[in-house]
Amino acid sequence: MVEISKRNARTWSRMGIRAIYGQALAGYAAENPNVIAVSADLGRSSGLDRFSKEYPNQFINTGIAEQNMVGVAAGLARSGFDVFASTFAPFASMRASEQVRMNMGYMGEPVKLVALGSGFAMGLLGNSHYGLEDLAVMRAIPGLTIVSPADCAEIYKTLEACIGHRKPVYIRLTGGVNCPIVYEEDYDFQLGKAVWIKPAADITLVSAGTTVGHCRSAADALAGEGFTIGVLNMHTIKPLDKEALAHAAAVSCTLIVVEEHMRTGGLGSAVLEFFAEVGAPRCRIVTYGIPDRYGETGTYPYMLKTSGLDADGIARLIKRETANA
Amino acid sequence: MSLIEINVMRSRVRGLRTIIYMVSDLDIRKTIVDIAFKCGESAHIGGSLSMVELLNVLFGEVLKHRPVEPEWPDRDLFILSKGHAVLGYLAVLHLYGYFDADKLATFQADGSDLIAHPVKKLQLGIESSNGSLGQGLSFGLGLALGMELKNEDRRVYVMLGDGECNEGSVWETAALAAERGTNRLCAIVDENHFRNDGAVTTYANKIKLAGIWRAFGWNVIEIDGHDREQICGAFAAARAYEEGPTAIVASTVKGRGIDFMEANNDWHHNRITSNVYKDCLRALGLETVDG
Lengths: 325, 291
Ligand SMILES: Cc1ncc(C[n+]2csc(CCOP(=O)(O)OP(=O)(O)O)c2C)c(N)n1
Fold this sequence. Notes:
Chain A is an alpha/beta fold.
């Protein structure tokens, strides 16, 4: 595992999430011939250019054929390889969803399916390329673990945890270039175990993916105004870290789930389902995400801003919700 | 004022008569380069340039359409299944009078409906939202079947990429269209031999794209996709063929018309900087401002 440092974190952030995915995977492939990358003609868009040239025997381009990609990846995974298959989020989770269901869900073949550019990260490419419903679809498939790394360091951590892990995983990559930095030093990462970025407080934000960094910035910005805000990085969306959630609910008055996904079926829904099962906590639970429609489009920063998912928007949300409380 | 602008203005005055404009391939290429440069962001340039002649003949001579009345019920329909080549499509729609330069200038601006893939908007002449490859042909077949059931004298044209033909859904539609003998459907395959990561190796050696369409029971016409005469001939032959669907497999050059972009897949999706812009104009044989 490469060193997580301030300097590396800055370089990685500049290169961006997708480039780091390719770079990290190439690093692991160099030490481990069991690692195989499969792409549906989007190697260049996921930092796998170098990978494909340096490790041609560990790289397969299935062509622009995502359903085929998932099936082939499953067969390779069954043969014992650590297979990472990647394409843009809607094509991974929805074009090929029934292949995911049969191969990864029903048969449990341990493919690591990597959704590139999820959330609004594809910016100007528009709604056809956004990953706004992928969690809802993937969460409904039994047996899948779903992870959404908060920053580039956590991509390294996630890939490392997935190698040798003989279970299917959906890895949801949000964020683009200049993505928020959450980790500047090493930390303990385990699948299924959420990480407290700021300890649970009166108000606690629960998030996943690069939204975690925006949540932290919002919490920092409001600290000067007398707010104490906890931030929980629920990097594993399925299975949820129930202990961490129960702790948050015991400590906080308001729990706000923030996500770059439709409000339907994502992390917010998962949290609500959990509390519906174990009984309502004394705290108020708010879920915030993308409204139920296909809206206008633009660059990634514009999309985050107009949907209130950048740090400013999240700060406004916190004020709104606590004023209501 | 250019000839095109004059024609567009005239068409507004004359109203509903279908007008054949003199849009040149060079006008289209220049417009593609202009908007790609002006938007300041990466855009899909190579696959837009490769289909210029095909689109120009289609919109100029083949499609029954009325830019001044985009929702004219008797119009033929065009679907850009390789939706990422929207730049070429928008340039053509603009030059044929569907919308003005101000609208075109919003390409890839925040909040605009002219983005990197077509977004369905009938008033602008955009019939279908695309961007997810491999979906346009089935939608097109459905449209054509609808016309058939309603006994309408209309046709559907769908533009596909050769890389896009990797998608299994293309071949599901191909089989069904042949089975049904849907002669109102015409597929145009822009075979420019590249996809995102490089060459379309799938159809480079053992299997040939035109051969597959033929094996699927289509009327296949192979042409040079930059030769106006051949393109016109192919569309005429497609129209005359009554047994079933036609696939025009057009051999093209990705990035055609701008020498340093030709068959150079770095220009699949890339940004035109001001220096590159000058080189583009030079390559097109147009004067640059600073000579
Ligand atoms: C379903 C789907 N998978 C992947 C992509 C990403 N993508 C956009 S363009 C492209 C390559 C297209 O190649 P081709 O169809 O040959 O088009 P052209 O070379 O003419 O641009 C890919 C893989 C997509 N838009 N849709």
